[in-house]
Amino acid sequence: MSTADTLLPPDLRAQITELARAEHRPRAASVSALTLVQAHFGWVSDAHLAETASLLGMSPADLDGIATYFNLIFRRPVGRHVIMLCDSVSCWIMGRDAVCARLQARLGIRPGETTADGAVTLLPIVCLGHCDHAPAMLVDHTLHGDLDAETAEHLADTLRQAAP
Amino acid sequence: MNVSERPLTAMIGLPDGPPDCAAYGRAGGWQAVRRALRDMTPEAVIETVTASKLRGRGGAGFGTGQKWSFVPRDPPATRRKYLVANADEMEPGTFKDRLLLEGNPLQLVEGMIIAGYAIQAGHGVIFLRGEYHLALARLNHAIAEARQVGWLGENILGSGFGFEIHVHASGGRYICGEETALLTALEGRRAQPRSKPPFPQVGGLWGAPSVVNNVETLCNLPHIVANGAEWFLSLGLGPDSGTKIYGVSGRVRRPGAWELPMGTPLREIVEHHAGGMRDGYRLRAFLPGGASTAFLDAGQVDVAMEYGAVEKAGSRLGTGLAILLDDRTCPVGMLHNLEHFFAQESCGWCTPCRDGLPWVERLLDAIESGTGEPEDLDRLHDHARLLGPMGRTFCAHAPGAMAPLASGLKLFREEFDAHIRQRACPLRETA
């Protein structure tokens, strides 16, 4: 992605300022502001991080300490779709390793990587609270359960076929 | 089953989705907040909840009324205070709060108004897991509607009490479930636990008096206030009051979650509600209430799922959602998976936890993959002792991680030895 040198759009800057204003202290909006930036660009670049930090009255290093602390803030580019496959205990018992192996083979990537066409990033995630339908994964904002290698592979194929 | 016997889930699973404000009221909602704000003093609400013996449903089991009682009453209402709903459900194997959040968000809203009134807090915050996208949408919708109808805002029901709720979607870290780490995260800092005292009830969010209650705990409040403490006490089968959302995951026929009387034996939950083990699988052991509870042996499946009985059996009720280990799944592999989680989620603040947990993970990895040595078991025992419940770490994260390890080392001694002797996982072929 080539967004690293782009400034935050004015409406996004206004939203971040508003988030900061609504909090008891501006820095309390750190995660929600980073989440907003990520929703727009897919990830948080150094330039966007610095600009967001200045809107919150923080140093870039201070905000980066928060960005890198949390699992759901991406400081590197990701694909158009993000698959988060649960790697916690109930999903492990129910065969998530086989699901992961098939996804890796089909997508040609390992967890933490993005397909060459930029369509899909595969990530592990902590328990999604869907243990009665293990193995489970989150595809973007949608939860999928009762997976096996075939259903997961089919879902991955659908993501890659979808228009960018 | 009589609806009054499963108050928490009576309105959940309706064909039209979660009830709106009007439907919630028709089904019995808002009675409690009316009673509390019109007929009861904040002290009377605290007394009722204390008398109900409601204990925290997030895992620690602290008395809810007692927790509230530490909030300073003086100076009164003018002081800034916070009521925080802990909706950061992240304990592996736990899926009860998501059910309550998605199924009936207004029940949580009503519970929060009551709790806020009891401690005279005007500010409510829901700390929600960032991965719970559907819950976020439904909570925001419910809160907006409740505000529009007048259940939130200034001067609710003309009582003079005002209350607002704001949802914070987390960036995702297990330690945020620990209440002081949660408050630190809300202040826009790396979510490291704080030293206590001061306790949050005295110096919490932004230094103000704050109470952090679990979602399921808060959802019980409307029913306790509406029906009384005696009624709530009568719901439990043993010493603990109320109902509990229990659940089972693993190789059972029907994994799921069910609201049942507090103290229901795990055997009844596994065999009756979850349909028993799947064909070809036998129960080997179980974690009664999440990843940070100690293993109990299959022979202990008759344990009553209540705080005291599970503790007496050698574990903790925790979240009350059991994870079952079957006889065809490798216990060493399961422990490796659990300790990988705890190592990854250590906040890194204190050395024993930050360095000890990855060491445990590497030792288990070596044993599981066939390169373990007999001395590795000694190292694991050392860690289970040194990181265990004796206060050498800053918070309860590492002791929680050691609960399944210490119990697993005892319970699965043969399996550990077989891995080291055969230099391979004996269950690999059948897995």
TrEMBL record, chain A:
The gene is nuoE. Belongs to the complex I 24 kDa subunit family. [2Fe-2S] cluster binds at C86, C91, C127, C131. This is NADH-quinone oxidoreductase subunit E. One of its GO terms (molecular function) is metal ion binding. Keywords: 2Fe-2S, Iron, Iron-sulfur, Metal-binding, Oxidoreductase. Its cofactor is [2Fe-2S] cluster. It comes from the Bacteria. Binds 1 [2Fe-2S] cluster. Signal peptide: none annotated.
Automatic annotation (TrEMBL), chain B:
Keywords: 4Fe-4S, Iron, Iron-sulfur, Metal-binding. It comes from the Bacteria. Pfam families: Complex1_51K, NADH_4Fe-4S, SLBB. GO terms for molecular function: 4 iron, 4 sulfur cluster binding; FMN binding; metal ion binding; NADH dehydrogenase (ubiquinone) activity. Its cofactor is FMN; [4Fe-4S] cluster. SUPFAM superfamilies: Nqo1 FMN-binding domain-like, Nqo1 middle domain-like, Nqo1C-terminal domain-like. Residues 332-377 form the NADH-ubiquinone oxidoreductase 51kDa subunit iron-sulphur binding domain. Belongs to the complex I 51 kDa subunit family. This is NADH-quinone oxidoreductase subunit NuoF. It comes from Gluconacetobacter takamatsuzukensis. The lineage of its organism: Bacteria, Pseudomonadati, Pseudomonadota, Alphaproteobacteria, Acetobacterales.
